[in-house]
Every structure is written in C-alpha cells, then in structure tokens.
Design brief:
heterodimer, A: about 800 residues, alpha/beta, Methyltransferase, Methionine Synthase (B12-binding Domains), Chain A, domain 1, 4 domains, eight-stranded parallel beta sheet, eight-stranded parallel barrel, globular, B: about 210 residues, alpha+beta, NADH Oxidase, five-stranded antiparallel beta sheet, two-stranded antiparallel ribbon, 7 helices, 9 strands
Chain lengths: ~800, ~210
Amino acid sequence: MRVTDFVKNNLTVLDGGTGTLLQQSGLVPGELPERWNISHPNVITEIHKAYFDAGSNIVCTDTFGANCLKFDERELDEIICAAVKNAKDARDKSTGGQQKFIALDIGPTGKLLKPYGDFDFDSAVECFARTVKAGVKYGVDLIFIETMNDSYETKAAVLAAKENSDLPVFVSNAYSDDGKLMTGASPAAVIAMLEGLGADAIGINCSLGPKQLKGVVEEYLKYSSLPVILKPNAGLPKSVEGKTVYDVTPDEFAEDMLKYAQSGIRILGGCCGTTPEYILKTCERVKEIKPKPITDKGLTMVSSYTHAVVFGDSPVLIGERINPTGKKLFKQALRDNDIDYILNEGLKQQEKGVHILDVNVGLPEIDEVQMLKKVCFELQAIIDLPLQIDTADINAMESALRRYNGKAMINSLNGKEKVMSEVFPLVKKYGGLAVCLTLDENGIPETAEQRVEIARKIIATAEKYGIEKKNLIFDTLTMTISADTRCAVETLKALNTIKNELKCRTVLGVSNVSFGLPCRDVLNGAFFSLALENGLSAAIMNPNSNEMMKSYYAFKALKNLDGNCAEYIENIEKTAYCDIPPRKSTDNGIRENNGDGEAGRTQLQNAIAKGLKDKAAAITKELLESTDALEIVKTQIIPALDSVGKKFENKTLYLPQLLMSAEAAQAAFEKIKAKLSESKTKSVGRGKFIIATVRGDIHDIGKNIVKLIMENYGFEVYDLGKDVPPQTIVDEAVRLNAPIVGLSALMTTTVPSMAQTIKLLREKAPWVKVIVGGAVLTKEYADSIGADYYAKDAMETVRYSLEITEN
Amino acid sequence: MPENVILLKKYDGSMLNPVNEKEVWRYAGYFGKGINVSGELKEILRLVEGELADRLSLRVCFRRMPITREEDMPVMPFHCKSKNLASCIKDSDEVIIFAATVGIEADRYIARYQKLSPLRALVAQAYSAERIEALCDKFCQEIETELKEENLCATKRFSPGYGDLPLETQTEIFKLLDCSRKIGVSLNDSLLMSPSKSVTAVFGVKKP
C-alpha cells in the first residue's frame, strides 16, 4: 500500500525524537549522528524498533544531516545505505501489527541561500538531489523533508525530491514563537508554495511544545487542502542532575495530540525530547478517533517569501509598471543592464499600495532568460510582494518560476493548444496561478459567450494536467472603446459569467479601455469600478493613476470590505486630488543670500549642500526650462558637491551629511537624465567605472556609497553587485573597455579573492586601473595585492578617478 | 542555569537599553568630539527606528560548558590556541558560548534602502549595529545575575576575529550551538554570518 492511500483513510502516527536517545547512548556534542548508522547500527535499529513497537506507522531514517556538504560522496552513499537497512531491520523485527512505512529523512543543510547567504539555489537542489537518489536506490517508501526554517531551502528540497523520485513527499517546517519561519514566511505563504509544488502532506515540527504551536496549527487547518502533519517538541529543555529533560510529560503530550487530532491533524508524531513512551501514549489516546476528512479549501493564493495573497472578495492590485512597452527609459535601462532602475519601479509601486508586481522584461535585443531570472531574484531580495512572471518566452518563464521563492502568478496562457501544452506542465511542476486569456487560434472572439466558451475549454484542459480551477484566473480582455464602443460591455459580460457561473477568479488589464481617447484616467477609473462590480478579482494597473486608486478605495469602502473605512481614510487624501502645478520660482541660478545659506551659492547649490532632495529636484526641473542641462551640471551641481566633498575630507562634515547631499544631487541628476534622453544628447559621461564587492563578501553598503558619489560626478557606473567572481569582473571590464575598476572587501577572509581578481585583471585587461577599498584594507595591504590605488573613502575614489580620466 | 544544553532566549526591543544615539552616529561615520547632528539626520534615525524596531527578532542561543586545562592552556570545547582568550579566562573552569542576532529583517530593510536612499541604509545599518551590541549587553547582564545566585561571575566576552582568536573558530562554535536551527543564523564560506547583524562570543565563568 502506498503511504498516501493509508493517510487518506487513517490517522497516521510518526516516530519521535532520536537526539536525546542517542546522547544517552553516548553520542558526544559536535559528533555527527548519521555516522552511527555505520558505527553503531544496533543502537539505531533498536531506536527505530522501539518506535515501531510503540505504534508508529512511519519511521524516519537517521539521515537528518546526511547531505553532500557534510559528507563526501562515498560516505554519503554508505550512510544512507546503512540508514535504510537499519530502519528495515527494525521493521522486520518489530512485533507491532500496524501498517509500517520507512521515510528517507531530510533536514536543512544549515547554509542560508542567496541573497542573504551564499548558498546558490541550484546548488541546494543538486545537494538534496544526491541524498534523494541514494534513498531511492536503497528503497524507502516516502521522503520526509523536515525542520526547514527557510521557505527557499524548502523549495529546493521539494524540487529535488520530485525530480529524482516518484515517491510521496511529506514536508514539515519549523516555526518560531512568532508563528513564522526564521526567514519570515507565514504558514499561509508556505502552504501556498508547497501545495503548488505538489507535496503530499505538509505540516509543522520542532521549535516548541504542542500548546505553543496552536496558532500555527490553526493556520494550517484553515488554509491547507492537504493532510496536515504535527510533530512538536516535548516542550522546552532543562537540565536535571546533568541530564537534559523536557518539561512536557508523555501523558500531557498525548492529551494535547488527541485534541489536535480531533481538530483535523492527520499525521502525528514527536520531535526533540520525545521518546517511544510519548508515541505509545499518543497512539493509545488517538486509537478510537475517527479521522476528520481532508477538505479542499478552494482558495486561490499566491505567495512571496513572507506572506500569501488570497484572492477573495477584496480586489487585488497588480502593478504593471515593470514593463518596457512604450517606455524609453525602461528600455534603455534593460539594454544597460541597469537593474536598479527596474527595482526602483518595483519599490515605488509597493509604496503606492499594490499587492503583486507584474514583471515583464522582454525586449528583442536582450537575453530574456537571464534578465528575467536576474530581475526576479533581485526584486525578491528587497521587496516582499508576490510576483507575476510575465513573459511569452517559455524558457524564461521556466527559469524564473524555478527560482521564485514562493508561489508566483504566471502571465499568461490562452486557449491555443500549443500554448496550453507548454505552460500547463510548468504550472503543474512549480505551482502558480495562471492568467488565462480568453482567446485562441481564431483570435479574440467578439462576443462574451464565445470568450466564456474558451474559458470552459481551458478549465477542461487544465484538469487533464491535474490543475484545479482555483489555480486559474481569467482575463476576458479589455479592448479600447475608441475602436468599437460595444467592446467594454462584452468584456464585462464575459467577466460576470466566468465569475458567477464558472465560479472562477478574474483579472483585467484595465487601462486598454481608453486607448486613443483624451483624459484616459477618467475612463480607466470608471471602467475599473464597473469591472469590480461585475466580479473582477484583480486588476493589472498603474498605481500612479489617482483615478484608479480612488476607485479602489471607494469600492472597498462602499462594499463593506474596509472595516470602519480605515483604509479609505488613511489613503484617500493621497489620491483624491489632482496634481496641483508647482508654484513658479523666480530663481534661474541667480546668486542669493537669504541669510539661510552661504553667500554666493545658488538655490540649487544650497539645496544640495543642505541635502534637500525634493527641493533640488524641483529647482533643477525649472532651471532646465531655460538652461542647458550640461551647463547646470558643470556650473552648479559639481561645484556644490566639490564644496561638500572638501568639507568631508577636512572632517568638518561627516558621512551621513555627505550622503544627504549626494542624494539631493542624485535627485537633480534624475531630472537632468530625463531631459537628456528626451533631447537625445549624449550623457554627462566622464567615463566608465565598474564597481563590485569581491567574491565571498556580501557587504555592499560602502560600495553603494562610492557608486552614488561617482554617479554624482558624472561617471557611468556599472555596479556588478556583491559576491562577484573574478571572471565576471574581468569579462565586464573587457566588454566595456572600462578604464577603472573599483573593488570592495570588508573581511580579511575575502581579501584573497580581491587579490585573485586583480591578478586576473592584469592578465586579461592590463589597461585597467584598480582602486580598492573596504574596512580591513590599508595602503600597505593594497600595495601587496597589486592594486593601483587605495581609497579610504568615496571622495578619494572620486579624486583619483578624476585624475585618471582627465589625463 | 543548566549545563551542556543549548538554551534559547528571546527578547522584546523594549527589554533592551534605549538606543544610544551617540553610538549609532559613531557607527555611521561621525567621529570627532562634540558633534552636532542635524535635525534632519535625527529625523532619519527616528524614521528608521520607527520602521525597523518592531521588525527585529532578537534572539540568543547559548551553552554552558566545562573546560579543563593542559599545562597553562585551557582545553576548550573547540580548538583554540588563543593566548588572549586563555588569559581572559585563566581563572575559569567553565565557559558560556553564545550567538546573538537581530534577525534577517534588518538585512532586508538595509538592502531595500540601498536602492531607495543610501543615507537611510547607512543609518539603518548603524542602528542595527548598535542594537546587536545592546542585545549582547542585555544577555550578558542577565547571565551575570543568574551566575550571582551560584556565587559566580563572568569574565569579559571574547569574539572570533578578536585579538588572536581566529575567525575560523566560528565553524566550531556554529556546530556547538546549532545556530542555524536554533536562531536562524548561518555561516557562509567566507565565515560571514547571515543575518549580518549577528555576534558570537565566549566568556569565562569564575569565582568573584
């Protein structure tokens, strides 16, 4: 019998802890328990047998830390071979009459994945894959992934299990006392991701005692459509006469587990501190209970690495701004590999209140697979919103979905057979909420009825792939009324039918409706309200449009979706007014002395010196109407920066103040850049400058300060990020023919990779001048590794770079 | 306090000393004496504190372990030839090893503001650095109180990378404390800790 069939009809009992038992048998702190499979097979077999005798249906092999980071390939294989044998021996010897299964146990690697750690996602999948393959080879009944406290590592392990076996996969996460994983994911976020990935049972283990896990258990029972696992600790550890004991007794434990079984937990066991006695007592208590049925909750969810977004009555806003269509600066940013520009589009939309970000980086001349992968990764490093992967390139879609931390939205598929046959397998494998356009080989049907027909066909096809309709969201296609005034009516009609008759979720790209007409926002806002009233679940929209945001807040308030109208009251003032044109200033760079600033400074220079971002931007914008852009840079911005920079060097002003001015100058530069790109004038460029934090080092605050100040001075800065391999830096230096490379390292342990980078640069790009900096470096150190210059701060980097480029 | 068990402590921000602004500004690059921090900058610190304070997850895991001696050098639970540490704990028969962190949200906040405002990122980084020190102080102060009941006291604390205690010691400390599982701190190949605002340290337990 497959374990999944058993679970379907029975309460299933797992085993308990092994750590305490092994310590009693003589395992010393720091010793790897997995080795005991080989050195002490009898001890391990006895422990497993004790659990089978106590009534466990599933016993986990002693392979929690059996991975390729801790053991070499040969030893890993031997350990897993022995571990599976020990568990099988125990099963054979046990007299218990219950169904008995053996699970390959997989715990976390102890390494944190990128971006906050240094373990690559693909390497993590590969690492787990080796353990899985060995487990399959030696014959287990299921794979039990447990004690995972990071959602991303959990995903890597599940993918490895699914890709290398046909065995059932159970997944259990360790939640902290704040009810979240260590890396911040809520239960709902983890559940959405794991259901998407096709886990067979999911749940909770370790960290706390049964009572303290109540909140997390409730969340699981509320959101999960899969059987839920619970495997708590025996409370908290304490020491009595030199021995570790836990503060929940076997009887108390069994009592708590009985209550959880009654409320719907289907798979029960124990973690740290529990022993065969705990399991025996639990079995006795739950023996008579009829298991509570597992129900499909029918929830449409997506998730990020922190939280889930549930598509319910309240409309979901999907920001559309990360998309190059019709955006000159965005296209340029893509060609220049300027990821920061794209990230800022994401941050701005988050501040405006969207719930999900659409990510489209398709441009014919760029490598979309690499770009989409990179942008999604970088977005997930700084923004905790779920993403909507938006691409027509199936390879780009797969590589982004694979590495996405959570359950993504997928934009899009449609009724064409070929598209469905490509996209559905990805939805099935990686999970996701698929945006389904109601069009097919014959194009977009005119009538609502025909669009609904296509929706039916998509639902039926999805079913064949094992994809439920809760993971489909239908777009009935907004067309402009300037071409045909009937089309909005048809779109809304189709929307209404799909929502109310097919009982599916819906989405629209709202703003198409007004294309070709004046004051588009007015129509967009009104159409949005109508669509919401017809059952729209989510809108792909521009959150900078006040009209859209007004409709959204008003709709929620009016439809009883905003308790006490709190959200409306909090936000409406930001969006309720039209933009008032700024008051005209009279200064055009004329010197002023209003007692407030230093004599002889212009308004712009004053704003920069004082670090007033908004003011610097506003003044620059005005100046640009009458003054040449480059002239402003030369006569106003640079002198202002110079004066601040000098004060910094003389220590009459400090780093935070320097940064305030730099940010103000940056704000002025944004305006200048926009103007220059309009008039197609060449940039302010003083030359190219590559900057990176070297391999192994993940600190980048100093590097980013240098970057900002260098940009202020007109250098074209190429920021390669942190933890950058020498080869990447060299390749970029050659590709860009860059005259200067800046390298940063904060740790003594990473200076060697700085030395390596310099060596490689000398070989492959001998023209490059290398500036180094960072906390542990000194001039002597810099000389010894062959750098051209040691800069102790950002201003020194500027001075030296100016020297080089001016000569 | 039990011996040889990995124990956990969790703190609420309000349990720590209030933010020492002078320290924050020192971490942010303000040296020199009698500096006047401008109102705008103070405002940024208040903003950072307002947004970040509640997101910090202040945790410590620790373990009390006996040590022996060979000739004049202590035999620690980890390999150690550090003379500085040896002299620091010369009167101790036990040590307490601990790891503390303010959690990953500080890193996320800093990374986010790297893109939006490097100034705010700098202040956030200085603020978090000050908080992790305050956390270590609070923890050590509590241990000091607990030890007093046993008529014992603690030596000053010592971290890998400090004096002649090599950074490589981190690897062993991480094994002894199971940091990744207990408080979500992991070590990368360059021996950097993630979350970055984390500290490991060891101190001796001795008679007063």
